[in-house]
Amino acid sequence: ARVPLTGVRRKYLKNMLGPMLVGTLMHHLFREATARGMERVVVSWILEENTPMRRLAKKMGTRHYKTYRMFQKSLA
After folding, report:
1. Strands (E), 1-76
2. How many CB atoms lie within 10 A of CB 19?
């Protein structure tokens, strides 16, 4: 299974609501994936500077295996 985007508005990150929402979502996701016989869940596209999400993913037993980056260059 792949979870491409998981996020919470910045205003909710300053209190416990944001982390609780993400934690609850991830808990249910992993539980449902296990119940369906899935052995892996990919939690991708977490920004490098999104330390809270990276911490949460690590606590849930994920491992960092790939980094995507975008670069910009003027063509003119």
Report:
1. 2-3, 42-43
2. 16
